[in-house]
Amino acid sequence: MKNLLSTFLVLIITYNTLSAQTNDSTKILDRFFMSSIQLGYINNRSEQLSAGLFIQASAEYRTPKGLFVRVNFDDFNSNYELRYPQGTINFLSGRVAFNELIGGLGYRYAYKKHNFLIALQSGIRFYGYPFIESSGSNLSVDTDNRTIGVFKYSIGYEYAIDIKSLVVVELFSSNVFEKKDFWEDHNGAFGFTVGINRTIF
């Protein structure tokens, strides 16, 4: 996480050093935006995972030329159903939570009160993978904490309520880097979010 934040700050400092736009009337601090939680839906496109509620929290630094740097913390839960052991007709079912920490770059085109954007991000997904532990004749379900790389791309639309607040709707698609665990049959997902973005300062 420290490396991600360091990269974020270096990109901001480098941009402002190179651009040197002293005549820009907008304060640097006004270019930081944060979503007040965007809510939406995710379809995991997997036979092992159900669809469900998707929660997105993000922070952005927006440059005067439309480019922006974004860091996301995404959260969603799904019901799972796994064959256990593999190749049998026995099923293991329950509920699992996923958290993602991702960052990346994007571009926003502004026309009056309307903004259109695209963002490309990558990072890590945290989750627990269930397994059965046996002790004598007793069986219990335990969880192994795991991570997997994830890539996410988004397109969106914003409408400016005022100079500091915008209503935002985004469509997204994501892919994990490996076909394993819950994603052996399919490594992609898609969904949407709706929320409000505001300047942080």
UniProtKB/TrEMBL annotation:
The keyword Signal applies. Residues 1-20 form the signal peptide. Keywords: Signal. It comes from Algivirga pacifica. This is Outer membrane protein beta-barrel domain-containing protein. The lineage of its organism: Bacteria, Pseudomonadati, Bacteroidota, Cytophagia, Cytophagales. It comes from the Bacteria.
